[in-house]
Amino acid sequence: MNMQTGLFQQQSLKVVMTRELTQAITLLQYSSLDLTKFLEEQTLENPLIEVKTTEFNRPTKSKVSKDTYTNPIDYIGKNETTLYDHLLTQLSYTKLNINKKEP
């Protein structure tokens, strides 16, 4: 019977779901409206929590009128290259061998 004695070292990595991590994952899944409702509920339960509203949280009306709106899709495929520019580009890809013959 052969027994070996000695010190051995083993490294392991564990992920522990703490209460804070679980709450953070839950909060990240909320939409802005749901998050606002959640924070309002928390302020009712805990008077020490103070929520300040900003312009970001308030829905605003768009100042762009329908007459000035341009759909971004209209710019797709809009190419300002002329035929001359296109032919010059193609010409730059070709190799030309010009052999001058002297008389």
Tell me about this structure.
The protein has 103 residues and is an all-alpha fold. It has a domain at 17-59. It is 33% helix and 0% strand. It is built from three helices and no strands. The protein has helices at 19-28, 32-45, 83-92. The longest helix is centred in the middle third of the chain and has 14 residues, at 32-45.
Please specify the SSE layout and strand pairing.
Elements: H1 19-28, H2 32-45, H3 83-92
Question: Percent helix among the residues?
Answer: 25-40%
Radius of gyration: 34 Å
Uncertain runs are none
In oligomeric terms, what are we looking at? single chain
Which whole number gives the mean pLDDT?
78
The biggest sheet, with number of strands, parallel, antiparallel or mixed sense and barrel status, is: none
Query: How are helices and strands ordered from N to C?
Result: HHH
Structural classification: mainly alpha
Distance between the termini: 100 Å
Note the total helix count. 3
As a percent range, the share of strand residues is: under 5%
Total number of strands:
0
Coarse shape: flat
Question: What characteristics describe this protein?
Answer:
3 helices; mainly alpha; 103 residues
Task: Please sum up the structure shown.
This protein is mostly helical and 103 residues long. The termini are far apart. The chain has helices at residues 19-28, 32-45, 83-92.
